[in-house]
Amino acid sequence: MPPLLSRRTFLLGSGAGAALMLTGCSIGKAEALSTAGTLDFADPLAIPPLAPSTLASDGARVFQLTAKAGSSLFHPAAPTPTWGYNGDFLGPTLRARRGEKVRVAVQNDLPDPTTVHWHGMQIPAIYDGSAHQVIAPGAQWVPEWTIDQPAATLWYHPHVHGKSEEQMTRGLTGMFIVDGDGPDQGLPTEYGVDDVPLIIQDRTFAGDGSFQVSSTTPEGLLGDTMLINGSINPYLIVRTEAVRLRILNAATARVFNFGFSDNRTFTVVGTDGGVLPAPVPVERLMLSPGERAEIVVRFKAGEQPVLQSHPQELGMSGELNIRAGGNDSLDLLQFRAATKLAAAAKLPASLVPPASLDLEDSSRTRGFILKDMYINGKIMDMSRIDETVGAGTVETWNVSNTDNLAHNFHVHGAQFRIIDIDGVNPQPEFAGWKDTVFLPVRATARIQIKFSPYADPATPYMYHCHFIRHADMGMMGQFTTV
Ligand code: C2O
Ligand code: CU
Ligand code: CU
Fold first, then answer.
1. Ligand 2 midpoint to CA 146 (Å)
2. Does domain 365-481 have CATH number 3.20.20.60?
3. How far apart are CA 91 and CA 73, in angstroms?
4. pLDDT for the residue 112
5. Residue 56 — pLDDT band, cuts 50, 70, 90?
């Protein structure tokens, strides 16, 4: 029996206590998880379907999303109760072009209130899907907006205050691909074939096959089983020399340090908010919860490299670093290159001219300190507006993690540039448009944000740590654009 199956059988057979021990959560000494080299990659990678859409008489592209409870068969022993959009687990990939008007009819068929937040989208605050746009069970919510930002890999997920970790873990997550209106960038574009979404998550299964859905530890939920688009043990057949991967870290607490089993070089072509000015070759790429990257990997006929996550420095003390998964080595996805590969051109030397911001553009500087699940000493309060910014303006925010835990920082409704982290310019693969920045222990990031042009003094956007347990506990604040 392959090692993964026996490990899972063991988990199912011996109940939640064993699961906790394997994740190193709360019993005894923390231990690193190592699945590298152990998966047998028995299942084809699931690809989230592209959501169908219709064109309304006003020209809007209309999507339908229904959030509902279901069940998924992750392993033969017992089905797992899961939540999904238009299905049992995860959601379809929404796709629209810059300039298009988009309307999404969101139906909540769940037993609980939910929201759908469009992470990374420049969108009016009333349609942002934050904790202020709750959809009651049985109700419908119909946001509509015009896509006005560069091509990018965005995503959607629930944002009910205090419940996001639970709802995301049950399965509510999907991708939203924005296509550009400009010239083709010379990147692979065939969805699910050589342009492949990878929604990366981790889970812990309890003895009855159900997910552990909420955490009690400060680091949040760290699972011992990785899910790639909902597949536990996946392979992907490759038929072209170059494949674009749209990687979304949709875990609630785990930081992934992506790389390949043969340490090959791959090329980063995009960050959270769109393509980079030029391709950046790397061997490792670290993404914290909520961050995305688009990479291009080149393959040779017949080879079978494995996408893995490697140990990383989260800046925490030894024991904490282990508990937060920083020492883990994980098998994620095996690629199986066919014996004949269709030729793919080399990447162009430059992609798009960078839309640049100048430090001089900043009209104001603000400071944010993340510590003890607070931001600037305050716990999230739905009725308090923490900051008011000018619509369409540019500001510099200094964000400091003065805690002993790793955090990150996400801003709604806008994209930003990282100016520097502890005074050092970001590596080129993080120098593009971002909406989430990783903050190792005691790091300070200076970011320059271009705020949403939509003014609304009544409805706030949010900023928060995207380690979701922390956001649920109150490491979150609110701002309006006026
Ligand atoms: Cu991805 Cu406020 O969220
Ligand atoms: Cu967001
Ligand atoms: Cu945090």
1. 17
2. no
3. 16
4. 98
5. very high
